Amino acid sequence: MLHIGCHLSSSDGFLAMGETALSLGADTFQFFTRNPRGSRAKAIDPADAAALCALLKEHAFAPLIAHAPYTLNPCSASESTREFARITMADDLARMEFVPGQYYNFHPGSHTGQGMETGIAQITDTLNAILTPDQTTTVLLETMSGKGSEVGGRFEELRAILDRVACKDKMGVCLDTCHVSDAGYDIIGDLPGVLAEFDRVIGLSYLKAIHLNDSKNLPASHKDRHEKLGQGCIGLDALTAIVRHPALGGLPFCLETPNELPGYAAEIALMRARVQD
Ligand code: FE
Ligand code: FE
Ligand code: ZN
Q1: 220 CA to middle of ligand 2, Å?
Q2: What does the mean pLDDT of the chain come to?
Q3: pTM here?
Q4: Predicted pLDDT of residue 41
Q5: Phi-psi region at 250: left, alpha or beta (left = phi > 0; alpha = psi -120 to 50)
Q6: What is the rounded CA–CA span in Å between residue 273 and residue 270?
Q7: Which of 82, 107, 111, 159 is catalytic?
Q8: Which domain does 62 fall in, by range?
C-alpha cells in the first residue's frame, strides 16, 4: 500500500486540507504550521482539528507532515534568531497536540560560518529544550542538499544531532529525494547503496517519511530546486524504484513538486499506477 500525498495550503484550516487531500487521491499531506516566513500563527480551532482527526481515522491516512517555517534557523550565529526558532518550534509542537500523533519536519539549519560542530550542538540544544516525553508528535530532521552552510547534507550530521538528543524516541528523519541527490547521494544509480549507507550511519528505523521530488539539477549540485516527477535529473524510473523499495514500504511519501492541485493529483495517480505494475 503506497501512502502518498502532497504539500497543501493551510489557509482554509485543517478539515479543508483533509478534504482536498481526499479529492486528489492522497492519504497523507504536508502543510506549513504557519506562514513560511515564520510570522504569527492563526489560533487553532479545536473543532476544525477534531474534524480532521476524524477524517484521518475514517480514511486510514498515514501520518501527516507539519513543516516548520523554512526560514527558522536553530543554529544561526545570531542568538535572537536561534531563540526565535526555539520559541516558534515549541509553540508549533504545542499546537500539534490538537492533531495528535503526526510528524513535525524541520530543516536543521545553516551554521552561518560558525562551523558544523557548533551548528550541530546548537540544533541539539534547541531540540533538548523543546522536546517533552509526553508529546505525541515525532520531530523529523530533513535531509538537506548541503548548500551554503546548511547542516544535514550528510547523513553523519543528522546522526550527530540524534546522538545528542535526550528524547530519541520523539525523533526521526525525512528523506527528501531532491535534496539527497543534490547532496551527492547516488539514488539514481545505486539506491540500495544509499539506503544501506543511511542504515549504517543513521539507522533505517529513524526513517519516517519521504519527500518525493525530482530535481532541476544534476547530482551533487548542492542546489535544492525541486522539479515535477519525471521532468528533472532524477527521472521517473529512479523515483519509481524509490516508491517500490520494500525498505520504504508504508512510509508517507509527500510531493513538493512545482504543481497546482491538478498536477499533484496526476502525480499521485502516476505513482500509484507505477507501484501496481
Ligand atoms: Fe523542507
Ligand atoms: Fe523537502
Ligand atoms: Zn527543497
Answers
A1: 16
A2: 97
A3: 0.97
A4: 84
A5: left
A6: 5
A7: 107
A8: 3-276
CATH number of the domain that residue 66 is part of: 3.20.20.150
Condensed to tens digits (0 to 9), the pLDDT of residues 166-192 reads 999 999 999 999 999 999 999 999 999
Respond yes or no: is residue 37 known to be catalytic: yes
Residue 13 is given by DSSP the state -
Is 67 among the residues known to form the active site?
A: yes
Kindly state the cell numbers that stand for 185: 547521494
CA pair distance 252, 258, nearest whole angstrom: 19
Pair 255, 4: CB distance under 8 Å: yes
> Who contacts 244 (Cβ-Cβ below 8 Å, separation ≥6)?
274, 275
How many structural domains is the chain composed of? 1
182 is catalytic: no
Q: Is 179 tagged catalytic?
A: yes
CA dist., res. 6 & res. 253, Å (int): 8
Q: Can you say whether residue 192 is alpha, beta or left, with left for phi > 0 and alpha for psi between -120 and 50 degrees?
A: alpha
Alpha helices in 108-154 (DSSP H): 116-130
Ramachandran bin of 126, using left for φ above 0, alpha for ψ from -120 to 50, beta for the remaining angles: alpha
Q: Is 209 helix (H, G, I), strand (E, B) or coil?
A: strand
Ligand nearest to the CA of 211: 2
